[in-house]
Amino acid sequence: MTNHTVKKYWDDPFIFSFTTSVVRVVDEPNRIGLVFEETYFYPEGGGQPCDRGKIDSHPVVDIQKVDGEIIHYIQKVSDKELYQGSTVSCEIDKDYRIHNMRLHTAGHLLFGAARRLYPKVEYAGFNIGKVGNLYLNTDQQIRSDDLHKMSLMANLYVVENHPIKAYLVKQDEVNNIAGLAVNLELPEGDVRIIEIEGWDVAACSGTHVQRSVDIGPIKVLAREVHKKNVTRIDYAVGELAILEMAADEKIISETSEFLSTSKDQLNKVVQKMSNELRNANKELKKMQERLVEYKFHELNEGGEVINGIRVVIEKLDYLDSNSVKILVTKLLNQSHATIVAIVGGGEQASIVAGCSQDVQLPVSETIINIAKRYGGSGGGKLTFVSTGGIKADTEKLISGVDAELRQLIG
Ligand SMILES: [Zn+2]
Fold this sequence. Notes:
With 410 residues, this protein is α+β, with helices and mostly antiparallel strands. The protein has helices at 8-11, 94-117, 144-159, 238-258, 266-299, 321-332, 363-373, 394-409, and strands spanning 6-7, 17-27, 31-36, 38-39, 53-55, 58-66, 69-75, 87-92, 121-128, 132-138, 164-169, 180-182, 191-196, 200-203, 218-227, 230-237, 304-306, 309-316, 338-344, 350-355, 377-381, 384-388. A 6-stranded antiparallel barrel has the order 2-3-7-6-5-8. Strands 17-18-19-20-22-21 form a 6-stranded mixed β-sheet, sandwiched between helices. Strands 9-10-16-15 form a 4-stranded antiparallel β-sheet. α2 (94-117) crosses α3, α5 packs parallel to α6 (321-332) and α7 (363-373) packs antiparallel against α8 (394-409). It is elongated, with a radius of gyration of 35 Å. The termini are far apart. Zinc ion binds at residues 104, 108, 194, 204, 206, 208. Zinc ion (ZN) binds at residues 104, 108, 194, 204, 206, 208.
């Protein structure tokens, strides 16, 4: 029968060095597991990673809870100093533990905030790394505005400096605790309760800070729909939270300066600009449509007849590539013995060309070859081709298209 290790990290999570005695040594091929009489080392569990630290100057590589025993793993050592009954000195990595405790406690605060925003919310997972990941199961979508509210509520709770208490209750008393949040399945035997004064109460075996102010600033970073009804919320605490806040501040300041407006007017100004841009694009689209109509009427009967084929070659720098495609399609529609090639401008030139069904000439191939010659590319079918990305002067391009199409017909 194994002895249950006394979990001293529950009594005082702010003790970072202690001595204890070894009650069992687990010899594994590549590492040694040590079971202590009592430990302040936190084993991996409930989304919180195990502590880092040293046992008699040997770095801790893993800590796991197995059947009530807490096994502390170190790398294989040759000396025989660690044996059943020996006394060991332990050092816990304080900064790392405090980081984990802050992230862990902040998770409870954000969960409490979510409970105030949604009628139905449950834990769907929890993870602590460089940032915290809180998985929430909600019956409605978590919007970006809600993240802002959660962040604000949790941070206000932090500065109000409430106590955070932990205690054990008997299994049969658990049901009497109103609004108890359960992250994982309830353990057998006594249940550890975390009471965040006036905010939330949960069954939890992790380590927590003792007052809300010890969490420091919380920065909600992002949300992502994990699966149906489950959203993952990423958040930072400590130095990372401060750096993220400063980065946001910098973006806002630089954008305000660029737009010559104050921070509080930024949202309005950007919305106004966005509306104006949308309207300008609509106008531009209408004008392009009118230009296509105008050019269609101008070119529909035009062109030069070579060997019985009407050839229309034009350079239209001011039409976007989509409008050029529409124009070429219109010009070829229901036409006979016709070839159309239009060169469009912009940062990189484009050629859209085609021929009527009765023209059995490889027009597409000729145009693609010209485009490729100048770093462009394109595709289409035998009677219609669209190319782009051409790095050549449009004047030079149009004379090339003209010469090669004449040769093809000639
Ligand atoms: Zn907890």
